[in-house]
């Protein structure tokens, strides 16, 4: 950082790691716990919805959601998330991070509860109600992405910033584990008390009537962590960077940060005004394009390509588990048993593959760096998915199901010890304070566009369990990951540098200062002084 940088920024960058940094990780992280639980628990209940509402006696087969309905049930929250990211990201830069941070949780609580309700008995009404509230649930979830990342990056010091942002995002892994665990526990409790016969024995009552409560309970429980976090989120002060740089009030920034961090910040009115004036270019300006255009292109393309693969893994695992032999054939078990086995398989894969990857990133991001971790993750995901695609017929046999499971688990591990974490971290560091939240929102929304490609496109290839189609899907995902590897070269390493040094805000201020000094010097030489 330049020697004449603002004291307020230097104080935040050099502050020792304190308890409030950890508290902020937990407060922001619980939002991501809720996000992941709400987005991924639908995977465990979608097959149950098919058996409850789409059973046709003429087919003599368990009920199944039609492709279009399944795509909307699993994908509508992603549409809401994309919209919420853009709206709340923009509001975070215009109104402040803190002012809109609580609103996201309120939306998540209300819509998670309402997702379990129905305004009628017909399947059209049930699915319509579910999709309506899951859209607005996704809208609230979307706001959490840019706001949590930006708040954490602006609170943290430069030595541990990457690890703290990654730790916030790592709570997504905990949320995915709990989505499987809660679904497993709830379905098991109902199975022990109301368990039905296999479909081959009793086509009608193999779908237990009480199962209609199960999916509602699982979805509604997603409101609980958001509700518990709301009070603490409202107690968080506005970030010092936003208050000082955007609002131009270093005194208030010092007061706010002094309440939660043990740092001293001096008021520098004139210097702050010059810093602010030097960095007022907008997102659509030519200066932003010249300085950060390639960075924004890099963060948007890599997140888009990553989420095609990541959400394909998570949303289609219910279709791949039976092929792997981890879940029994639907005809041989009851509806609740099928949900229990799907939840159990999801829990095991998340615990052994997904969860460790997030925390490997937390521990190694400040040692290896964001850039190398992202390159490694994309490359390894591409390799393992290509192996699964090429050797799929061999791997799906009963004798090799654990080899299949290991390879599948490794794709999750390197997604999270790789681009799924770093694509969240980098947009929170690369861009100037004035547009940081908006740029993160654009990057995250691009990711959700990729997730929609998965929900409405890739899922078409896995829903019927057709081996040839699943092979095609895996090879396509291997290709998208290799494209992500190439697009990573558009971003730069941010490890160990201040946010202003990374974004060029210090450099811009110094350029303005030098021009001012030259003007003053010229005036003195001409006898103007």
TrEMBL record:
Annotated GO biological process: phosphate ion transport
Alphabetical list of PROSITE patterns matching this protein: MFS (PS50850)
Region (Disordered): 500-529
Domain Major facilitator superfamily (MFS) profile: 24-496
Compartments (UniProt record): Cell membrane
Catalysed reaction equations from the record: phosphate(in) + H(+)(in) = phosphate(out) + H(+)(out)
Pfam families per UniProt: Sugar_tr (PF00083)
Gene3D superfamilies linked: MFS general substrate transporter like domains
GO CC terms in record: plasma membrane
Principal cellular location given in the protein's record: membrane
Segments passing through the bilayer: 72-91, 100-119, 163-186, 213-232, 345-365, 371-390, 402-419, 473-492
Keywords from the UniProt entry: Cell membrane, Membrane, Phosphate transport, Symport, Transmembrane, Transmembrane helix, Transport
GO MF annotation, one: symporter activity
Biased segments, Basic and acidic residues type: 500-510, 517-529
The organism's place on the tree of life at top rank: Eukaryota
Cleavable signal peptide: none
Membrane topology: Multi-pass membrane protein
Family in the record: Belongs to the major facilitator superfamily. Phosphate:H(+) symporter (TC 2.A.1.9) family.
Stated name of the protein: Major facilitator superfamily (MFS) profile domain-containing protein
């Amino acid at each position: 950082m330049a020697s004449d940088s603002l004291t307020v920024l230097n104080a935040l960058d050099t502050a020792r790691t304190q308890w409030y940094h950890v508290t902020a990780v937990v407060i922001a992280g619980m939002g991501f716990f809720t996000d992941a639980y709400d987005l991924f628990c639908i995977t465990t209940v979608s097959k149950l919805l098919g058996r409850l509402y789409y059973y046709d006696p003429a087919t003599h087969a368990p009920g199944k959601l039609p492709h279009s309905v399944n795509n909307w049930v699993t994908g509508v929250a992603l549409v809401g998330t994309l919209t919420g990211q853009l709206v709340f990201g923009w509001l975070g830069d215009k109104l402040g991070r803190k002012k809109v941070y609580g609103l996201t949780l309120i939306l998540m609580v209300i819509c998670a509860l309402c997702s379990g309700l129905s305004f009628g008995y017909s399947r059209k009404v049930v699915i319509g109600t579910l999709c309506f509230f899951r859209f607005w649930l996704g809208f609230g979830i979307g706001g959490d992405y840019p706001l949590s990342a930006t708040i954490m990056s602006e609170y943290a010091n430069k030595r541990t910033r990457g690890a703290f942002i990654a730790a916030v995002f790592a709570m997504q892994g905990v949320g995915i584990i709990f989505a499987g665990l809660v679904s497993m526990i709830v379905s098991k409790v109902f199975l022990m008390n109301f368990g039905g016969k296999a479909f081959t024995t009793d086509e009608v009552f193999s779908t237990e009537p009480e199962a209609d409560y199960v999916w509602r309970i699982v979805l509604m429980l997603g409101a609980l962590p958001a509700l518990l976090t709301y009070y603490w989120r409202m107690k968080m002060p506005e970030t010092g960077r936003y208050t000082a740089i955007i609002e131009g009030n270093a005194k208030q920034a010092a007061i706010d940060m002094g309440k939660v961090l043990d740092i001293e910040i001096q008021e520098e009115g004139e210097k702050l005004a010059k810093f602010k004036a030097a960095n007022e270019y907008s997102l659509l300006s030519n200066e932003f394009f010249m300085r950060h255009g390639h960075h924004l292109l890099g963060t948007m393309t890599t997140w888009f390509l990553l989420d095609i693969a990541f959400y394909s893994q998570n949303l289609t695992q219910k279709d791949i588990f039976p092929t792997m032999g981890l879940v029994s054939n639907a005809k041989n078990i009851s509806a609740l048993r099928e949900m229990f086995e799907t939840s159990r398989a999801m829990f095991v894969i998340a615990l052994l593959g997904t969860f460790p990857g997030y925390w490997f990133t937390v521990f190694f991001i400040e040692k290896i760096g964001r850039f190398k971790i992202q390159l490694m993750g994309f490359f390894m995901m591409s390799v393992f998915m290509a192996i699964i695609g090429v050797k799929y017929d061999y791997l799906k046999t009963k004798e090799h199901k654990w080899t299949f499971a290991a390879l599948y688990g490794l794709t999750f591990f390197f997604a999270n010890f790789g681009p799924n974490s770093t694509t969240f971290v980098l947009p929170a560091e690369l861009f100037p304070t004035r547009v940081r939240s908006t740029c993160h929102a654009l990057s995250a929304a691009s990711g959700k566009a990729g997730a929609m490609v998965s929900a409405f496109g890739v899922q078409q290839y896995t829903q019927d369990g057709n081996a040839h189609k699943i092979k095609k899907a895996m090879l396509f995902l291997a290709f998208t990951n290799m494209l992500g590897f190439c697009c990573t070269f558009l971003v730069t390493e941010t490890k160990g540098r201040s946010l202003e040094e990374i974004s060029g805000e210090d450099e811009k201020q110094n350029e303005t200062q030098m021009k001012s000094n030259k003007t003053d010097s010229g005036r003195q030489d001409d006898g103007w002084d």
